[in-house]
Amino acid sequence: RPQDMRCFVVFDEKDQENIKKVRPGLSGMGSIIFRDEEGIMARDSIKDKEYFYDHVISPYKGKVESWYVENQSLELYFRLIGLTIWAVVFSSYVIHYENQFKNFPEAPDELHMRKTHH
User: Fold this and answer.
1) Which of 16, 30, 46, 90 maximizes the CB count within 10 A of its CB?
2) Radius of gyration of the chain measured on its C-alpha atoms
3) pLDDT at residue 111 above 90?
4) How open is the CA angle 39-41-43, to the nearest 5 degrees?
């Protein structure tokens, strides 16, 4: 999906270049993983929301989207469609993506504290 420029510029340069290689689609790995971004940002433990977004969430989104570009395949495309449907139907369910995909970027420690149920 298209990124807001403010968010895109905090991505690592390599990730920005990879992401620019493909046209935006209807969904993306970052959109699926961060479907509860508002819930993550609402945690009491996050004191500086803008800093957290710019230094934890956005850079990780960049790595995830870059990973997708580097690993594109028809199989991965259909898995993304399936995950998008799954994320909409089972919105509170957390999938541990690091275990589902080869060489998937590991989430920063600050994101491992997400709630798994609402």
Assistant:
1) 30
2) 14
3) no
4) 75
Query: Does residue 93 have a pLDDT over 80?
Result: no
Stretch 1-27: mean pLDDT: 78
Using DSSP, state whether 26 is helix, strand or coil.
coil
pLDDT band at 115 (very low <50, low <70, confident <90, very high): very low
Tell me how far the alpha carbon of residue 89 is from its chain's centroid.
18
Q: Scanning the structure block, which residue is given the tokens 């870059």?
A: 66
CA distances from 19 to 23, 44, 55, 57, 99 (A): 8, 32, 18, 16, 23
Q: Which of 48, 43, 3, 52 is nearest to 23 (CA)?
A: 3
